[in-house]
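ZP: hey, is the orotidine-5'-monophosphate complex queued? I don't see it on the tracker
AM: it wasn't, my bad. submitting now with these inputs:
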Amino acid sequence: MRAADRVIVPLDVADVEGAIALINRLPQVTFWKVGLELFVSSGPAILRQLKAQDKQIFLDLKFHDIPQTMAGACRAAGRYGVDLVTVHASAGKAALIAAQTAAAAGAAAAGQQTPKLVAVTLLTSIEARSLAFELKVPLELSDYALQMALLAQESGLAGAVCSPQEAAQVRRFCGDDFCLVCPGVRPAGSDRGDQRRTLTPGQAVRAGADYFVIGRPITTAADPAAAFEQICQDIESENIPVRER
Ligand SMILES: O=C(O)c1cc(=O)[nH]c(=O)n1[C@@H]1O[C@H](COP(=O)(O)O)[C@@H](O)[C@H]1O
């Protein structure tokens, strides 16, 4: 897989017009993420636009609910013919299994390929102190993230979303067939913003990430195309081949 196909850029904008402007500005991006802001404001229209342009789509709505509701949402998501869909691992095993089964059924009924369901282990904006003192989780952060990834794997999901800081450990325990999607990737010197557990693109490749979700370092750069290209070169220069998962 080319580096350019592994960098997923989020359409973190307020409306479809803003999204189309960004897509047109970065024709070299092949994988776009549609997240909460755009989907809640504008609905699925952008998915049709992206499909018409043969782009890969990461539908990142981070479902977290009871099994019945997760199943309904994932069945509907499966009908869109998207490539990746997020759920929260902390919804629990029954919800994850229901989500996976329903996504496959929704896709099959609509004649689409089944999306890969990936479970968020622990948001990359959360640091160890918040996990312990706000969320009251009595585990080391890296252990908690690993347990959530293992839960996703046991539930039959294709992969997990984790910080690149936990990617090496998750890869070691979950094996080569498990898909690792890493946000919280920051080229050296770029602003961390609200991200708390970050690594550079090169470090994230070495840790075993398959996909990198990188937004503001590209979209707010003076030259977004150059920023995207530089990140692709950083990934390519590590010379670590990745297989399709
Ligand atoms: O599921 C995600 O994509 C996600 C999970 C997570 O733990 N952290 C995280 O930042 N993300 C998403 O990844 C993107 C990161 O954007 P930047 O911080 O601008 O690079 C955002 O669209 C987030 O919604």
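AM: back. Residues 16 and 43 are 9 Å apart (CA to CA).
ZP: great, adding it to the tracker
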